[in-house]
Amino acid sequence: MKYILSAAILALVSISPVVNALPGAYSTEYAETPAVASIPTVKFSCGYEVENWVIKSGFGTPEQSAKLLIDTTFGSIFVAGVMCHSDFCGDQSSPLYNAGKSSTSVNLHQKKVFNLGDEKIVKADLYRDNITAGSIELHNQIFGKAFSVEGFPAHPNYAGVFGLNPVDVSSDLESNFTPGYGYSNLLGRAEADALPAAVGNEVTQASRKSQTRTNDVSKVCTFSFGIDYTLVYKIGWLSLPTREFGKSPFWKTDLECVKINGVVDLKFTKTIAEFDTTVKDIHVPHGDLAKIHQGLKATYDYRLKKYVFKCCYAKDLEISFKDHKVKLPVEAWTINVDNFGEHCAAKFAASNTIEIPTSRWRLGTDFMENFYTIFDKQGAQTGLGLYHGQNPSYLT
User: CB within 10 Å: which end of the chain, N or C, has fewer?
Assistant: First the structure.
């Protein structure tokens, strides 16, 4: 993600400059860039062939390794514990977290039920311990040691979740104990509130240009607490929706229009787009997806289990938010499905969420890998940035 999620997963890159207040827009025309400081970061694998954004982390002293899913819809951290007997825990290839083997572990003697939506329920005991990931160090961090994990896919490549949503919506804590949420809690120091999280991509401009729809090479992305202004020359800030439409993650904005020239022109009212790292494709409501497939003259291929269309029908994808418009070139939202470059499929999926509102668009990791994605808690906004060398028309 050398794009903005830190290298926010399509822009997952290291972030060096840390600032207390981010400029409303940043460009190379500025005479001075913000002051640079050391930015805590962790690298991870990304790209079209990578199903989830997962970071390698360590818990306790001595350190016990665990992989965590980056989750923009969740507000806490949990990891499977040794007392967990759910299928999720039994499917793990690595040892589960054992608090008894950590000299820095503190049992808070509290239980919590985390509701992650879409019938994903985690029951956990609350602990404090040290957590590391790359150069990120979370001292005395509150997290859930899970003893029951339900609703997650079988054989996951992660043992827990690293939440980026600064508000935990579950309210079933079995006492009056309420841990802090957001980046101040994650970093363990008050000044962390001023640090946005970002994801970026470490793929060079040359290698990006050489990629084709046929072969999307694996990439290295970075998740950071801060923004590396040496990587981006333009940032568009997206405010939270002007009104709330049901229970949904924090990182979202008003969606006004989705357009593919000569194919489809969808206009929306009371519709939101969510920046959701738990899904890969752009998840589209069934009705809107049907209109897109109709415009592309797509037919369902039962062998590939995808809707397929002639590549020449595809044009740039334009997504208009309330504050900014982004454009994805054809190669960014389609994949080639034959050896001749004639037939393509879209990086879209039908949204099957049962969470309200079901009509929302969910912009997954395949979308975010095209930008430097910033999650700014203090400003209550999401940022999409362009890397040096990217076409300025991709963000207006």
Answer: C
| Shared domain check, 384 and 249 | yes
pLDDT tens-place string over residues 277-324: 999 999 999 999 999 999 999 999 999 999 999 999 999 999 999 999
The domain of 188 spans 52-194
* Vertex 229 angle, CA 228 and 230, to 5°: 90
Are 189 and 210 in the same domain? Answer: no
Query: 32 lies in a domain?
Result: no
Express each pLDDT in 157-168 by its tens digit. Answer: 999 999 988 754
- Measure the CA–CA gap between 182 and 192, rounded to whole angstroms: 9
DSSP states along 21-41:
S--SS--TTSSSPPPB----E
Q: Is residue 15 part of a domain?
A: no
Check whether residue 259 and residue 368 sit in a common domain: yes
Phi/psi for 292 (5° steps) reads -65, -45
Q: Which residue has the tokens 């290291």?
A: 14
Query: Could you give phi then psi for residue 376, rounded to 5 degrees?
Result: -105, 100
Query: What is the pTM (predicted TM-score) of this model?
Result: 0.83
Q: Which of 162, 194, 226 is the last residue of a domain?
A: 194
**For residue 26, pLDDT beyond 80:** no
Question: Could you give the 3-state DSSP secondary structure of residue 187?
Answer: helix
**Mean pLDDT over the full length of the chain:** 80
Domain presence at residue 387: yes
- Could you tell me if residue 357 is inside a domain? yes
Q: Which two tokens stand for residue 90?
A: 């039994």
Look at the chain and report how many structural domains it folds into.
2
Of residues 34 and 321, more confidently modeled: 321
Please name which of 164, 160, 158, 135 lies closest in space to residue 147, comparing C-alpha atoms. 160
